[in-house]
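Recall that a protein's primary structure is simply its ordered list of amino acids. Everything else, from secondary elements to tertiary packing, is in principle encoded there. The following example makes that idea concrete.
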Amino acid sequence: MVFIVNILVNNIKFQPQIFNESIVFCLVDNTASYQTDWIRELIKNQTDYIISDIYGRRYVVLQGLDEDDLLRSALRQGFKHAVVFSTGTEFINGPAFFEEIENIVNTKYSIAGHILDRGDAYYELHHQCYLINLTDYNELGCPAIGKQELGSKHTQIVPIRSTDNIHDDYTPTWVNAGLISKEYYHKCHGWNILSKLFENNLTVRVFDKSIRNNKKHYYPENITDFQKHSDWIYYRQQYCLQEFVHTASTEGPHADPGVKIRQVVTPASGTWYENYIDTENPVTVVFYDYNLQSIEYWKKHAPARANVTYKFVHCDLLSSNVEFDLDPTLDTLVNLSNIFCYEGTTFFAGLRHRANKENQLLIHLKETVPNAYVYFSTRAASGYKPKDVLFSKAKDIDLTDITTLIKPTWHINQDWC
């Protein structure tokens, strides 16, 4: 893939060579508002991963500090829809969120998000994530979304809302334009765009469970809320480390090395390698994983083949230097999958660390098995590099120089320089 970078006003653009030309993701950096360095560091790590994940799904990411500026940039570049989300938001359950977004953009809507009834404050469009129809936005004259203004009295038409709630009493399942005016005492995020949409009888949709269940926000602006929601971070880390086992192939190399492989190194996850190995001569398959349960599972369930010998290595490529004992004279395939860009570990392993450990392993492979074919589904810095080599011989794969990566705003003039 070729990676194109443009500086758009004060924004940064992450663009795959082949990308969705209709939907763009606009990422707003709120890290400066966080109250502790601990929260800021965890969210920076998580958001670095999110950019790589979205990039790998072939969407453009525009990243900056101001959502209005990002939306105008998206419109100028011809996109029809924008997913606007803030640092501290991630998309979970694989492709589920993205599939739901693709469904919504094929329906009638002007904006979709978390719409909150704030009582004496006008309705809120929660900043964590919303989807906006850029055609409607443009026809309205590109109004400002509207920042929070506490103590700002104003009169608005009261929206009509459902009597039932998604949860609590401030989360209606639907909201429509109203008829009666009321004086409000505060303005919440999104007050202006919501009022403009209601004035013009345009469709405001509330995210339902199909979106809510496939997205997670950690509320990093508030220490108490973050501590509550961060339980998921630690749960997922331990679940991936100790319990979760891939019992079927979830991926394999997307390019054929063109030779019959005699040595395979792969995470303990499925039997994809059977499509590539020699069927007559001796073959060694090395299963490695940081999850001991995965290793134990495949010790019992690896398919018996007369010419295949299995080895099992319990290791963590992010915490130790592993040197696989490989024969340099044999045709070899090393599957590094998404080991260096994995949702189960990235909260606690920054991009700099992940890239460094990836480099160390690649150097080892270059020195010991230079002609081995190496495959990644995602690299540590996928999306941040001008060129992302995912399949090549070890001797030809580039290392990552952290100082040359495209820098999102939370890294500019800071830890990557």
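The longest strand covers residues 121-133. The chain has two domains: 7-229, 245-404.
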